Every structure is written in C-alpha cells, then in structure tokens.
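Archive transcription. Copying these from loose printouts into the bound notebook so they stop getting lost. Printout 1 of 2:
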Amino acid sequence: QVQLVESGGGLAQPGGSLRLSCAASGFTFSSYGMSWARQAPGKGLEWVSSIDNDVSVTYYADSVKGRFTISRDNAKNTVYLQMNSLEPENTALYYCGRGRLAIMDWGQGTQVTVTS
C-alpha cells in the first residue's frame, strides 16, 4: 500500500533552516507529482508547495516563495522541502502528499517549531 513517511522536522530559531524529507513507497514515484502542506495550531490545512513528476516544474505558495525549495530524487523515491529564513509563523505540522492538483494520500506529518 502507499506509504509516505516524513522526517526532518524539529526545533529551529527564527532565520534558521530545516530540510524535510518524505520517503515514498507502494506506488511508481516517478509517475506522480508530489506536494507539501502544513497545518498550524488551530488552523486549517494550507498548501505549501508542489513538484511535477518532471522535476523541473515547481509551484509555491506566495508565503514561502523565495525561502522554501521543493525537490525530488526519483532514484530514492524521496521528495524534499528545504526551508530557509524560517519564521515563527512557519510553526506547523508539515505533511507530504501524493499528487499535485489532487492529493491522493498524505503522510503522518512532521512537526516544525520555530521559536527563539
């Protein structure tokens, strides 16, 4: 069955960086776009970024554009989210999803906390 396992979350200071990873299995990874979304405490799910199965095409929410970078390694069945210049407002549970326009499966999430 489809499995998406996120890792790399943790505690960061404002202005710091974290790199999230999502290891995928149970489907042909290179055939699917992949996405990241997040849910902050008390708020709904917010789309963050997506990448087509063609690794050259990426998409970002305005709130993260220029600070976050999505990438993928089809040989490792893994999608990444490099997060730089982190802000306290980026504190959330970050989820990896299979798909781009429509998310078919979600991982369990990895917590990112940005605080001084």
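Printout 2 of 2:
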Amino acid sequence: DVQLVESGGGLVQPGGSLRLSCVASGFTFDGTTMGWIRQAPGKGLERVATINWMGNIPKYADVVKGQFTISRDNARNTVYLQMKPGDTAVYYCARSSSHWAFDNWGQGTQVTVS
C-alpha cells in the first residue's frame, strides 16, 4: 500500500521558516513525481509544488514562488518542502499521477502562522 507520512509542521511566526518532510513507501519512489498540496481553514485543496523523479525540475504555484523550495532524496524515499509560510494550512505530501494531479496523499501536517 502507498504510504506518505509527513512531519515538520508546527507553529511559526510571520516571516519564519519551516521544513516539512515526507517519507514514502509502497511504490517506486525514485520513478515518481512528488508534490505538496495544502488546505487552509475553510478553503479547498491548493496545489503548492511538485518535483520530478530526478529532483531537477521543481514547479511551484505562483502564490508560493520565491517562498517555498521543494526537494527530494531518493536514497531516503523522502521529499521536502522548505517554506516561509504566509498562511495557516494543513500541508499534505502527495504522489503525482499526471501534471499537477495527485492520486495519493498523506494525513497532513499542520502549519500555524501566528
């Protein structure tokens, strides 16, 4: 079974930074584009970033460009999101099925900006 386990969320002050991690299992990680999506209170899911299997082509939603950096370590089956969050949201690690589409995601990690 596909498993995606996020960690690294928490409380951050405005202008502060966090690094989220996601450990993946149950599929061929180093052949799969991975990404992050988020959901702010009272809002729908929002795509944040993706990174191709080689880790050399990151893509970002316009709203987070310059503030977030996605990366991966295929030896550790882990994808990261270095971020300077502007808003409170739950962040989910996700497996990409096609361009900006995802077919599995984790339980999420809460990021609170206050």
